[in-house]
Amino acid sequence: MGASTPAGDGGTAGAGAxxxxxxxxxxxxxxxxxxxxxxxxxxxREMRQLLAEHIARAEVxxxxxxxxxxxxxxxxxxxxxxxxxxxxxxxxxxxxTLLDDVDALRRFQRETVLKLHGMxxxxxxxxxxxxxxxxxxFAMCCDIRYAARSAxxxxxxxxxxxxxxTGLIWFLTRTIGRAATLEWLYTSEILSAxxxxxxxxxxxxxxxxxxxxxxxxxxxxxxxxxxxxxAGLKANVELALQxxxxxxxxxxxxxxxxxxxxxxxxxxxxxxxxxxxxxxNP
Length: 282
Known about the structure:
globular, alpha/beta, 13 helices, four-stranded mixed sheet, 10 strands, 2-enoyl-CoA Hydratase, Chain A, domain 1
């Protein structure tokens, strides 16, 4: 794909707040890019609504089969905007409006974390650089994580004396287990991409020069699959994490019996027999 490949392609920041998160569709893949490279894509309050809007747009678009969350420049996201967090005006405001802040944060979590995790479409975090704090949280709430070899990952919340945000503890516990999660949270150790892969935090690591191309190839491959099947696979995996074997088997029997009646299944079989790629309807 070359330098124009969308995943973490190192573009430049826009002039206004509306450009702090960018949206693009290519090859049935929706790219949502954090775009504050001068601040290592630190997450500002203004970015909340933009992110929610872009996720909602990708979810309903019939032209989108897969969503990729990534960053512009050298970072995925370095976390919250610490300079703003340290402002005395912000501290006073938060003390005065605590309940409003809690409600706003819960609404933001529903519109972003729960959407990415729970929507029928597959989601990928293309971790092109540093993923700290809330940046790591957003990477973890995606279905799959690919990392550039130069990327660095860290929970970071202990370093600013807060206990976590945006579902990070829920996702980490289910990914690497209780003890490993607590150790990482307590120490705020910075992991290399290869170390993160060894611990199961990321799926695959690609050399920086090939990262955008490899990520796009895999995202486009997933997006080209049956949207109906991808949704069913995601739902069945989520059920398997929460239910006992008997319940999972019950749902599996229902799902496959329904699948066998679908046009996507018929098209997949025709394509296999005719030795061609399947052509699924959106």
